[in-house]
Amino acid sequence: MPFTAPRDHIHARQCRLISPLVPWMPKATRPPDLPEFERPPVNEMYLSAQFEPLADFRAAHQGLFWERLRPEFPHIEEHPPLGHELEVFGVRQSVGSNIRLELVQRPSMARYWYIKQDGRHLIQLQNDRFIHNWRKTTEEDSYPRYEIIIESFFREFERLEEFLKVEKLGEIVVDQCEVSYINHIVAGAGWETHADAPAVFSFLRKPRSRDPLPEAENEQCILRFVLRSADGEPIGRLTATLTPAFRVTDERGLFVFQLTARGRALSEGKEGVRRFFDIGRAAIVNGFAALTTANMQKIWGRI
Known about the structure:
single chain, alpha+beta
């Protein structure tokens, strides 16, 4: 499922982000040809910028930065750090999970979550990554749309840039961008049991009467697609992960269908990060439409 970008945008493998806290690009607008759903099954969505580790960034700085955010993000949690990952091309990659051993001179710093009062929006920060999440906290919550979340991401990201500048902690050099949508597709509308996965996902099929095996009890799989520029250069990957699960509140069956676009910024500066976010989001939405069935898309209110 290739996705093309203008060739003149594909020239930077790293992106140095230094800018004052001033408006620097127009507000995001939705492309008119992108599939749209009135009731998308999005349970969580995040934007992430990974950067070269800030050598002088310590746990104390996490607390100092939180003080700046605390009026809007009054809650804080501590979590294990995420690994530093890069999409690479031209070398053999393991199909399964990778195990990496590193020699470090000091323990990895924790990843902190700064959470808004309603719990729906949160920021994650460690010394090499900044993430802005939206997540559902009640069944009545509706996805606020990419155009709103990306503006929030850059508004808070610029606050981090300013903090690093004041504290003389170095410059952010982005080496990978990431967009991810986590969908919870709950049983009862279009399907009933996990064996009904082919009714939800267009890349699966029910077995034929002459097939030697009965229908699968459930399906779990990972699909990967290379995202390419107009001249065929790989710029990232789209990964779709399908996992059967049960909702904690009522044990109702659901499919967790996560689509993640990961790759490099497409030019220097925050605009290059934003361009990859836009391309990644488009690849995810188009991929979601290509990998799910027309009947389910009617249920989600495809426009």
